[in-house]
Amino acid sequence: MKCIAEIHSWLALGVTLAPACLFFADKLDLAQAQGWMLAGTVLWFVATPFWMEHKAS
C-alpha cells in the first residue's frame, strides 16, 4: 500500500510540473495548464500523507 501511494504521489507531482513546461513551450493554453496543475496538486495532497507519515515523539 505504501509503495503504491508513493508511486501515485510521484506521478501526481509530474502532473503538477509537466503543464508548466508545456505551457512554456506553447503546447497548452493557460486554462488547460491551470486545470492539469490543480488536478495534480489535489492528487498529490491526497496520496502523499499515506506514505510520508509523521511519527509522534
Highlighted features:
57 residues, mainly alpha, 2 helices, 72% helix, elongated
Overview of the molecule:
This protein has 57 residues and is mainly alpha-helical. It has one domain (8-47). The chain contains 2 helices and no strands. It has helices at residues 2-24, 30-47. Helix 1 runs antiparallel to helix 2 (30-47). The longest helix is centred in the first third of the chain and has 23 residues, at 2-24.
How would you briefly describe this protein structure?
The chain is mainly α and 57 residues long.
What is the alpha-carbon Rg in Å?
14 Å
- The fraction of residues in strands falls at under 5%
State the major sheet: none
Total domain modules: 1
What's the number of extended β-strand segments? 0
Order of helices and strands: HH
Give the low-pLDDT segments: none
Proportion in helices? over 70%
CA distance, first residue to last residue: 24 Å
| Shape, principal axes of CA atoms | elongated
Separate helix tally? 2
Structural class determined from secondary elements: mainly alpha
Overall mean pLDDT stands at 92
What is the topology?
Layout: H1 2-24, H2 30-47
Helix pairs in contact: 1-2
